[in-house]
Write a structure and sequence with these properties.
Layout (H helix, E strand, L loop, with lengths): L5 E5 L3 H12 L4 E5 L2 H10 L4 E5 L7 H11 L4 E6 L3 H9 L4 E5 L3 H15 L17 E4 L2 E4 L4 E3 L5 E2 L3 H12 L7 H8 L8 H15 L9 E4 L3 E4 L3 E4 L1
Parallel strand pairs: 1-2, 1-3, 3-4, 4-5
Antiparallel strand pairs: 6-7, 6-12, 7-8, 8-9, 10-11
Helix pairs in contact: 6-8
Length: about 240
Amino acid sequence: MDIRPRILVVDDHKNIRDPLATYMRRFDFDVEAVGDGKAMRQRLDERSFNLIVLDIMLPGENGLSLCRYVSEHVGTPVILLTAVTEQADRIAGLEIGADDYVVKPFDPRELVARIRSVLRRNRTPVPAAAPEPLAQPDCRFIFSGWTFDTATRELRNPADEVVPLSTAEFHLLRALVENANRVLSRSQLLDLTQRSETVAFDRSVDSQVSRLRKKLEPDPRRPGMLKTVRGDGYLLATRVTLEH
């Protein structure tokens, strides 16, 4: 059964966001609309989305700051809504991770077309088969001085300090330690880490690996443990032991 793409519209003008959400639902999108960054962050904590339509000019935290947050911590594609005079903001948005932008005022048909284009670019085919996790029950993984407890979702570094993990980082690290020293393709990682109802995006895996690498590696630019295998995927190259 096909799953409707989930779209989050973030715009502080109710007379824009509500009619826009209504219009987009006509094209078989599952659309939610909120008015500011605080509400956006709350919805992202509660539910996954396939794309965010994000206005740059928002009260409180602006759209560029929110776009950076999404790029670094969520990995969801973003289309920015910008004013015609904000060329510098459009460039800045693309540089920090936005996938596209639409200039206000805009024809909603153009926005729908751009949404479909971004979704097509980022969609990843479901792999024919993925490796089975080696350890299904909750347990503690010990590797290179690190301790990863899947029951408490706690990661401790070699100095026994807690290193916070986002939900996406937790699932990614679990997939990697359960398949340590095995090369996992992006498609396999998506299959191992995404909930079944979530449309998977190839770009999100790269973003999540980059964030996790910054927490695990002394020098993320020269990783010794979470390695990229060019053309194939990623590898957690370390000995892992289990404590049930």
